[in-house]
Amino acid sequence: MANYKIRRHTPQRAVILEELCGTKEHPTAAELFALVRRRLPRVSLGTIYRNLEVLHEDGLVRKLELAGAETRFDGTVTPHYHVRCRSCGCVRDLPAPLHDKLVTTPLETAGFSIEGHRLEFYGLCPVCRVAKGETPDAGVNSH
Amino acid sequence: MANYKIRRHTPQRAVILEELCGTKEHPTAAELFALVRRRLPRVSLGTIYRNLEVLHEDGLVRKLELAGAETRFDGTVTPHYHVRCRSCGCVRDLPAPLHDKLVTTPLETAGFSIEGHRLEFYGLCPVCRVAKGETPDAGVNSH
DNA sequence: GTGTTTGCAAACGTTTTGCACAGGT
DNA sequence: ACCTGTGCAAAACGTTTGCAAACAC
């Protein structure tokens, strides 16, 4: 609402979005920097950050501010949750259906108006499970 | 399991824990530093960080790594969720009951073993609601 | 031509670390 | 006496910003 901003078309911005949409890895700004640099060797890290911010403002990119880690970025903006591996730090999409508002809105709000929530899961990714000798079974609450 | 560590009793550690348990404000390390300094003027910020880490390891302190903000600390270790104000950044406890495992464990886990989740709410705190002219009504999803 | 965007480098805020010394046990 | 914990300062880390030049429109 009431926020039209002129955006110029720059190769930097285009390549950043292309690279982000071309991976499922939820890269950090630094990882994206490395990817983009292969195609635009003179790009700077500041440009990556500035464009990610712009793309996020325009709703083309999702920002994943996960607990206790660098911000990661997601080219898929449709709502879904994430799992993070506590061992290697990788982040994956969860294909499971979202929990609806009834479930994720607290009954008591301490006087706040609740606008939304962030839900994030953590555990061990398939690779780290094997590395730690866990049986790759059903995968839910195996401890 | 197999992790006994000798902890010495120091006034710094004691005061840090006392101050943290004596407030409901979920202070940052810097805020705690200011509080502790009033009683121990020569304490250093590094000591605050080191002790918060130790206290967290020992299960006496909870670390709140909220999305896109500095880490805050909570002297209450019993499980509960938090709300953060998107305007002033303050953090409050939610007295509402926790959602149980059924609700917060995804059906599909992408091969991960899920060990837990983090759920955090955001919105406007009572003070900021008034400042923005919101009617202080029931308080749920008022937009 | 105008105003956005870039590359570069410096600054920033939070957290961690190296080190010699103090102090708990 | 041992070795953890402290204060101090510097470094590390991810991110933001100031600036002049480059470029899109």
Task: Kindly report the oligomeric state of this protein.
Answer: homodimer
Shape type of chain A:
flat
Average the pLDDT over all residues of chain A and give the rounded result: 87
At CATH level 2, the architecture of the largest domain in chain A is: Orthogonal Bundle
Tell me the number of strands of chain A.
Answer: 5
Strand order of the largest sheet of chain A: 4-3-5
Largest interface: A-B, 50 and 50 residues
- H/E series of chain A, N to C? HHHEEEEHEH
Low-confidence stretches of chain A: none
Q: Level of helix content of chain A?
A: 25-40%
Please tally the helical runs of chain A, counting DSSP H or I stretches of 4 or more residues.
Answer: 5
Whole-Å distance between the termini of chain A?
48 Å
Can you tell me the CATH class of the largest domain in chain A?
Mainly Alpha
The structural class of chain A is: alpha+beta
Strand content of chain A: 15-25%
Evaluate the radius of gyration of chain A. Answer: 18 Å
